[in-house]
Specification:
Layout (H helix, E strand, L loop, with lengths): L4 H11 L5 H28 L4 H21 L3 H8 L6 H15 L5 H8 L5 H23 L1
Helix pairs in contact: 2-3, 3-5, 5-6
Length: 147
């Protein structure tokens, strides 16, 4: 059975869940804000414990990475992401989840062909295109600040 592209789009539109844009934006904003606030609290705590700001920043990043991986491992991060949407994509926690999820999913296939081969399926494009995009944006910024 062949259907046209327009007919297919109508079916998809009818079957798709309606998005609650305002609720989704508010949830993303709140959860992202909570993650960032937690990061700032950790930074302040590590500095209070006597670490200089560079070491405190490193410990903060490491703690957030660990927490996101741990929550992914106990299947709690995905539940939070269902309600928070893009709010969980705060770069360091989202990236940690993007590495941990495939590692867990493909661990049954072995360490080399499972985890080793599949761990970057989600994060790979970020690793590949992130530096390229930053160079392009940096050049645009540099050119626009010359004048």
């Amino acid at each position: 059975m062949k259907i046209s592209k327009n007919e297919y789009q109508k079916i998809v539109h009818q079957k798709s869940k309606k998005s609650h844009l305002l609720k989704n934006m508010l949830s993303a904003f709140l959860v992202g804000g909570i993650i960032c606030t937690l990061g700032q609290c950790l930074q302040n705590l590590y500095e209070y414990w006597g670490f200089d700001s560079v070491k405190a920043s490193a410990f903060t990043s490491t703690t957030l990475i660990f927490l996101a991986s741990f929550l992914t491992g106990i299947k709690l991060f995905d539940n939070i992401a269902k309600h928070a949407g893009a709010g969980t994509l705060v770069p360091i926690t989202g990236f940690s989840n993007a590495i941990t999820s495939p590692a867990m999913e493909f661990k049954n296939e072995g360490m080399i062909l499972g985890v080793g081969a599949k761990i970057f399926t989600i994060a790979g494009p970020v690793i590949a295109y992130g530096p390229i995009a930053s160079v392009v944006y940096g050049l645009i910024y540099w050119v626009t600040t010359l004048f």
